[in-house]
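Dear colleague,

As promised, here are the two records you asked about, laid out in our usual form so they can be pasted straight into your sheet.

NAME FIELD: protein one
SEQUENCE, THEN STRUCTURE:
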Amino acid sequence: MKRQLVFIDDSGDPGFKLHSSSHFVMACAVFMEDSVAEQVAEELKNLRKSKGWNDEAEFKFTKTRKPVVKELLQAVAKYDFTVSAVYIDKSELSGIVPIIDQSKLYNWTIKVLLETLPLKDARIRIDGRSSKQYMRTASSYLRKELNKKSHKILNVRFEDSRRNDLIQLADIVAGSINRSLQKDKTDSGEYLAILKPKIGSITKIKIK
């Protein structure tokens, strides 16, 4: 099995306050070939350029105009990669607000997502602008947990999404999946419909 390249981002938030999101989604884009990853990144650069945006402009599902989100998804759909996600439906907690360390829940959700994938010596790239201490702790946790039974991870890196187009793609994927869970939204199914041929799995998970 080739060494995969996996880009991860989330949508919603891992909190349980009154203003927190109804769902928390962790999603990834998985590439088997570095050359395909480079081609998809080039598509995002070209789309950004076609809009007259500067090189630092970031694609984000919550901030990017939705016609542009659709254009982005349609542009990358022709390439050979897959997307997968896990999500938490907070409404299933029946109004009981658990006391949970949000950073630990974030890391655990990444772990569960990666456990759903048939990885071998994968290179993991995660959106993150956190402290060096947190990134070291999270990387160590993921390698330890995921390499217990099989060597799923070769290395883990947290990278600034503003400088990584494929983490921006993962953000768009996560946002598209999150929107599909919000049945009160008139466009809830539109983005996921474009992604459908790329979907490996979307799994609801419960907090342990």
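NAME FIELD: protein two
SEQUENCE, THEN STRUCTURE:
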Amino acid sequence: MATALLVVVCGKVLAQPPGARRAPGSGPRDDAFRMVDAYIVSNLQEGLGLSDEQFVKVLPLVKRFLADRREMAEQRRRALRDLRDLLQAGGATEAKVAERLREVKALETEEVDKLRGNLGALDAAMTPVQQAKFRIMQIEVEQKIREILREVRERRRGEAPER
């Protein structure tokens, strides 16, 4: 039931026209992230079999993990976009590219370290079975999001005006 709700809501948010006007920080991607986070949080206790005491400890750790993952992914996306723009502009020198590439690699390393630390803190508050269930929950949610994104892209291509 909850997965069906996630599919419907994310599908509606992601299917909005690309040019739709929204306030800063409230675009389809932000809405989708908030919905995914809410889905994970709402299914956390029951899905992982957490006691009330564990849930109180785990909830802020999960929220921090999700926020850090989102923030790091956005930073990496921006750095890669800047690198792509530099390459496409035609004036990319070896030195400029090397500098931007160092930034990308530093972000990638920071992301791995930060998320590993977050998962370590989460693991310390859960049993091995709960840790496994959390990781499986993440994978299933990510797969569902990829499916939704693929379907939205296919619909947009099918509905695109012919030129």
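A couple of things worth noting about protein two: The chain has five helices and no strands. The chain has two domains: 1-16+25-50+128-163, 52-125.

Best,
R.
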